[in-house]
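Appendix B, record 7
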Amino acid sequence: MAISRMLDSITQYISEAVMRIFGPSDDAYPVIGTQPFTGEPYKRGTADSW
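Structure tokens (predicted):
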């Protein structure tokens, strides 16, 4: 009986992992599109000074 319970728990653990990997995405990220650039452009002379 202990071996069958252990096999059941291992099978359940592996099957849940497979379902999580290959299942549909459950991400709740908002659909906001691309973000505008708000930084400063790269200047070659100022990057070498520090």
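Remarks on this record: The CA atoms of residues 32 and 38 lie 16 Å apart. Helices lie at 2-22, 44-47.
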